[in-house]
């Protein structure tokens, strides 16, 4: 992860403060940025996140045998498909690849076909709310950009539900597109054609 020269002093001070946690510079700078370089607040946030990882036993998650519900892979599709022009990973409807690589990545959320009943399903909204909250608290600054495409009119209801737990820094990186033409133009600014899956591929006459 690129660390700017002006961040170096704060990073060195933070490393001394949380030396006992044995975190690499990439993790430390993300927590610092999330707390606007306030070392005390960043320390509190990081220690809570490390404690959460221990309680969830995330470091040994790969050793456990468990299965997602049968509908998971059809209802919540996500795929890693290439990188943007700056080398950041790009994931459609998922964060695991971005978290695994340890550096900020791009997430594309395609809402085509989202129905009223899906957008207003309270148990799903509550689950998603907790998921967003955990990501912001334990994996801050893991998103380089979020692109929400093919947005239906009902989207504003769900988005307003999530906004309270989404950090302002994340909201500033989020772009919403109602029309495919708008998304196609932005897509080609950010990603090579060979990293775009066929169903999201812009027409060849768009450059």
UniProtKB/TrEMBL annotation:
<feature type="domain" description="CRAL-TRIO">
    <location>
        <begin position="6"/>
        <end position="199"/>
    </location>
</feature>
<dbReference type="InterPro" id="IPR036273">
    <property type="entry name" value="CRAL/TRIO_N_dom_sf"/>
</dbReference>
<protein>
    <recommendedName>
        <fullName>CRAL-TRIO domain-containing protein</fullName>
    </recommendedName>
</protein>
<dbReference type="Pfam" id="PF00650">
    <property type="entry name" value="CRAL_TRIO"/>
</dbReference>
<dbReference type="Pfam" id="PF03765">
    <property type="entry name" value="CRAL_TRIO_N"/>
</dbReference>
<dbReference type="InterPro" id="IPR001251">
    <property type="entry name" value="CRAL-TRIO_dom"/>
</dbReference>
<dbReference type="InterPro" id="IPR036865">
    <property type="entry name" value="CRAL-TRIO_dom_sf"/>
</dbReference>
<dbReference type="InterPro" id="IPR051064">
    <property type="entry name" value="SEC14/CRAL-TRIO_domain"/>
</dbReference>
<dbReference type="InterPro" id="IPR011074">
    <property type="entry name" value="CRAL/TRIO_N_dom"/>
</dbReference>
